[in-house]
Amino acid sequence: MRRRFGALAPVELAPGVPATLVIGYRTAVRILHDPDHFPADPRTWQQSVPPDSPVLPMMEWHPAARYCTGTTHARYREASQAAIDAVDLHALHLTIEQIALSLINAFCQEGAADLVGQYAFPIAFEALNWMVGCSPEIGQRVATGMAARFDTVGAARGMEMLKEALLELVRLKRAEPGADMTSQLIHHPAALDDHELLAQLMSFYGAGIEAQRNLITNTVRLMLTDARFGGDMLSGSMPTRDALDEVLFSDPPMANFCTTYPRQPILIEDTWLPAHQPVVVSLAGCNNDPAIAGGDRSGNRSHLAWSAGPHACPAKSPAYLVVQDAIDQLLDVLPEMRLAVPPEELGWRPGPFHRSLRALPVVFEKCPPVNTDPHGF
């Protein structure tokens, strides 16, 4: 694509849904910092898309910060940021530890596990439910609906399931508020209505389950297949943060995202971009742009995996904590874990947006359950 098109490549997101894929790092940074010319509002575009398009449930407009600009964006962003900032990171760390050890104890005596279904998904799922104040039953419906949106398989039904579950959560929290993100949103001075609350919660769940699950599994996969990390891991020194940053550069959990829609035709890099047609940033493509490649990336966080500009992810701190704690707990208990199949046999879920393993089968020496009592009794 770079040889043929340069920084901007024409693609189809689904049959009959043309878009431009940004694969040049500096071009992406320019676009992401220019919401006046590249707003994230899809409402004009979505009128031209067939109602049964598999990507529409993932891309259609909702009253949330990532779809808006100006004062509307600020209103939603401030409410979401306040809810995120209210999360007790110390309590979250202890919660992740308890969830992780409980999950590990469920398979540590088997000598084998699928780290997607038995570990990465449930730990991201349970951690977010704890932060949002959501019951496992409602959360399961949310997760099923969210997965359908990302996979673009049964996406319309998934969207309906997602909305129904989140609106039920909002009604419950209006009646019985607690120390959680949903209650913080409900009582924020922005005075969000139910539709707006639904949209903010969808953003939380989209990033909190999908991206964190993929980041956990993609990082563990790297640590099990790359000698730079595997050797240190087996010696007891596990550079989890270095591995995380490497994955955020080379194999980000959201491969293509941060979609914008130019208000009018605009010339970028000798390419005319049509008005109201999606411009999708390939986070994977931009991070691996040869123009910025080379050298040791240890500690380098200039990747675009968290996006950039006014729509940059507001939840980096809790996200890093959840993912790093999840990986550290797993490798502390099972340090000699290895892949159960050759790396090239690992399969990936469908969908144009995420970079998500179907399964991550591993084997290890069987071990007894770990004591999960925080006092050691």
Describe the protein's topology.
Layout: H1 2-5, E1 8-14, E2 17-22, H2 25-32, H3 43-46, H4 56-59, H5 70-85, H6 89-107, E3 112-114, H7 116-132, H8 136-151, H9 155-175, H10 181-186, H11 194-225, H12 227-234, H13 240-250, E4 256-260, E5 266-268, E6 271-273, E7 279-282, H14 283-287, H15 316-333, E8 338-339, E9 361-363
Parallel strand pairs: 2-7
Antiparallel strand pairs: 1-2, 3-9, 4-7, 5-6, 8-9
Overall description:
There is one protein chain. This protein has helices at residues 2-5, 25-32, 43-46, 56-59, 70-85, 89-107, 116-132, 136-151, 155-175, 181-186, 194-225, 227-234, 240-250, 283-287, 316-333, and strands spanning 8-14, 17-22, 112-114, 256-260, 266-268, 271-273, 279-282, 338-339, 361-363. It is an alpha+beta fold and 377 residues long. The protein has one domain (2-363): Cytochrome P450 (Cytochrome p450, Orthogonal Bundle). The strands form three sheets. Strands 1-2-7-4 form a four-stranded mixed beta sheet. Strand 5 and strand 6 form a beta hairpin. Helix 6 (89-107) packs parallel to helix 15. The chain is globular and about 65 Å long. The model has no long low-confidence stretch (mean pLDDT 91).
Radius of gyration: 21 Å
CATH superfamily: Cytochrome P450
The tally of structural domains comes to 1
Number of strands: 9
At the first level of CATH, the class is Mainly Alpha
Give me the CATH architecture, please. Orthogonal Bundle
Give the H and E element order: HEEHHHHHEHHHHHHHEEEEHHEE
Q: Strand sequence of the main sheet, in spatial order?
A: 1-2-7-4
Category from helices, strands and their pairing: alpha+beta
Helix content: 40-55%
Distance between the termini: 59 Å
Give the CA-based shape. globular
Helical segment count: 15
Percent range for β-strand residues: 5-15%
The largest pleated sheet is described as: 4 strands, mixed
Low-confidence stretches: none
Chain-averaged pLDDT = 91
